[in-house]
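Please check this:
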Amino acid sequence: MPMKGAGDADLAVIDEFDGGVGWIAYPDETMERASHALAVDGDVWVLDPVDADGVDDLLAGLDGEVAGIVVCLDRHKRDAAAIATRHDVPVYVPDWMTGVATKLDAPVERFGRELGGMRAVTVRDSSIPPWQEVALYDEEGAMLYVPESVGASAYMRTESETLGVHPMLRLTPPRRALAGLDPERVLCGHGAGVTADGGRALAAALDGSRGKAPGLYAKTLRQFLG
């Protein structure tokens, strides 16, 4: 399987629930890049999207108009500008995130600690490795979106994990940023999310990150060699 799909997409719907939907544009790719759209207080926010035929139909099925496209990780520019242009809305980028706005061919708006009623949680802002990431937490709706540090794709999880910490962060998991959150639903930028008891899955991922790191690395090595 390729790391990232290209060419004609074959959209697969994931994480479908009242007030939101997720999709993977290229289901056969290793990275399992997941995109989401959330309807909050009459506005639809599109998070880290990869474009595909059928995306606009998914957005039209939500309650509200598209208010903006959101880049939550500095590496997740993806197709944000193209979808923003098509819907005549800005791309929203955290006010502290650097090196992203100038690379987007679309109007850009900045946001701080809140976006559309959701709390913006700084997960990581580091130069080594280069990594700028914000999570979005809808406490009232019991929903958390994490774009990269925690995910559900196969390459992020051992066989015993529902959610897993990114391989590069296994020894330094983002406990300070995420440990105090207790969502029912956890959505991820890679892989289908957790639709129930997400707080427990998140806590297990963070608590077991270091101890399960050797197992994940061994699994990855077997896949690479196999």
About this structure: The CA atoms of residues 149 and 166 lie 5 Å apart.
